[in-house]
Design a protein that fits this description.
Blueprint: H1 7-20, H2 39-46, H3 53-64, H4 67-73, E1 80-82, E2 88-91, H5 94-114, H6 119-126, H7 132-136, H8 155-169, H9 174-205
Antiparallel strand pairs: 1-2
């Protein structure tokens, strides 16, 4: 019978992995690095975690399924793979990186479908800062269809900046373009500060 771990169980074991192997496993998805192939076997052999073999395998799969690992960490050909001690053992192959890039592209395509890049403009219209005349001057936004390879530490900031760019780029009226640019930039700056704080916390814990 196929073992199915609960999310709570995988999260608990994930925390144990971070605590026991701080040079290999990271709580912050943007800090995650490619792991040695079949690293679950090494964790099981180490006999440190109080969990079944199946639960450990499921937790590591859950850890690697995060877009911070599955997409960003694995999308760079030649990126180093590490063992439980953080030592380099091999590298991400071009084929593996290509597959990760496909996952990134699908992820961003889905984000484009779910997220309206003109949300800020809609809010401005609802609050009366954009008139009906101003709305008519706005062109349809251009959505990103292919992901750009970036460092995982900056993935959230990249998302915010891309959404801001998409909101502004379709506006032909200069005054309206400036107003929306200022509004979206505030969101980007907030995200930048959040990312900076998260990186600082990760560095202190590392």
């Amino acid at each position: 019978m196929l073992y199915r771990a609960t999310r709570e169980e995988s999260e608990n074991i994930g925390r144990m992995l971070v605590e026991n192997y701080p040079k290999a496993f990271f709580d912050n998805p943007r800090q995650r690095r490619p792991l040695k192939n079949n690293i679950a076997a090494d964790v099981i052999a180490d006999k440190v975690l109080q969990a079944s073999d199946e639960a450990i395998i499921a937790a590591i799969d859950w850890y690697k399924n995060n877009i911070g690992y599955q997409g960003y960490a694995m999308s760079v050909p030649g990126a180093t793979r590490i063992n439980l001690n953080g030592d380099v053992v091999n590298r991400v192959t071009p084929a593996e990186a290509s597959e990760a890039q496909k996952i990134l592209n699908e992820y961003h395509a889905k984000k484009n479908e779910q997220t309206n890049p003109v949300r800020v403009m809609s809010d401005m219209y609802a609050s009366g800062r954009i008139t009906d005349c101003g709305v008519k001057k706005m062109d349809a936004p251009t959505l990103r269809t292919k992901a750009t390879t970036i460092a995982p530490e900056f993935s959230a900031l990249y998302e915010a900046l891309t959404a801001a760019s998409a909101a502004v780029i379709g506006i032909s009226d200069a005054n309206m373009r400036l107003a929306v640019a200022k509004a979206t930039l505030d969101e980007v700056l907030k995200k930048a500060m959040q990312v900076k704080e998260e990186l600082a916390q990760g560095g202190n814990h590392g």
